[in-house]
Amino acid sequence: MQEEFLHYIWKYQKFNTLQFVSSDKEPIEIVNPGQYNKNTGPDFFNAKIRIGGQLWAGNVEIHIKASDWYAHHHEIDKAYDNVILHVVWVHDSAVYRNNNTEIPTLEIKPYVDRSLENNYLSLIKSKSWINCESNFSEVDDFLLDNWLDRLYVHRLERKSQRIQELLVVSNNDWEAVLFKMLFKNFGLKVNANSFKSISNSFDFSIVRKLQNNNLDIEALFFGQGKLLEKDFEESYFKDLKERYTFLRHKFTLDNSSVAQVNFFRLRPSSFPTIRLSQLANIYAQRTALFSKIIEMKELKEFYDFFGVGTSEFWKTHYTFSKSSKSSNKKLSKLFIDLLLINTIIPIKFSYAKTYSNSVEDNLLDLVQNIKIESNSIVNKFLDLKSLNKSALVSQALLELKQEYCDKNRCLYCRIGNSLILKK
């Protein structure tokens, strides 16, 4: 048994009767269970409890065993002086306040349906991939669809918090925040941290000054990414190096804190050289990125806008040292989908939330038109139950796994709740 389960029972009043009796045989009526407190202090504030006909207003503390009151040293903590009821699973000891007055105790175990307890324990003690793995397929479709929609919005809200933090350090420059987020996501999983460190190694104002000059932007990106430190005979490489030397002196650039980019276990089309050239091309060919993505609504608009390739040299190369068969190396729809999922939709959501604009329905329509992501977590869920094949579902499933399943938060999950309450 865990206190978290007792908090859940008390908060939502999951009892099989409303006729309670205290450990001293006095009748108890729960007028208001109080406000749940997740911080230090009593578990529920501002409760209203009628005990033996007398209405009390104050706090409620919950423990597995009554003696936990002393194990947690509440008897010497003034924060607990206003506790009007001690709610416990097992009453093994009377407890007293600092002034030696006894606190009424309610042992709730006799009032909780045995099926509720058994369902909770079977979930929480599960050793499966997720606690409800054996029951996931039984979950009502309507309940699951609504929960996944809510989980996706939860995920956007968490990402929005990180965007707001970036805004603070970027002096509320949305364009600069978009740049940092795009840069990191162009690195994908393997080079995300490296690319993030590159974008943090110089101010976005430099990109603004170099905009419309592809070679200068490439020189900045490649130079700060430590990709111009060796020597190659290619004239393109020498040109980049010369440009970067000038830029480094002009803007007092420093790349000592930049993490080394990785080529290992990457397909050539995802090499950091290709991704940096593609990103440089976006900023050379597209102006006012932020305002334009805020205006765009249809998926095709984003595919057209971000469908850029590399500079000429990279059409026949993947590295500086070796040529290859010529190809345009344009950003694929799959890659643009990832940019939409991880950067564009979150920043559009955060912008709308900041300025109290309602675009949630439009964003939900947009993400529902993007193909579902394929990864080990999403694929495992799809093995358990057939679900809609959209990016909203895959993002919601990632949120479910990371924020609920992995943290055993079944009590706060609508799926877990439905299984716990199942008769």
TrEMBL record:
It holds the Pfam family DUF2851. InterPro entries: DUF2851 (IPR021272). This is DUF2851 family protein.
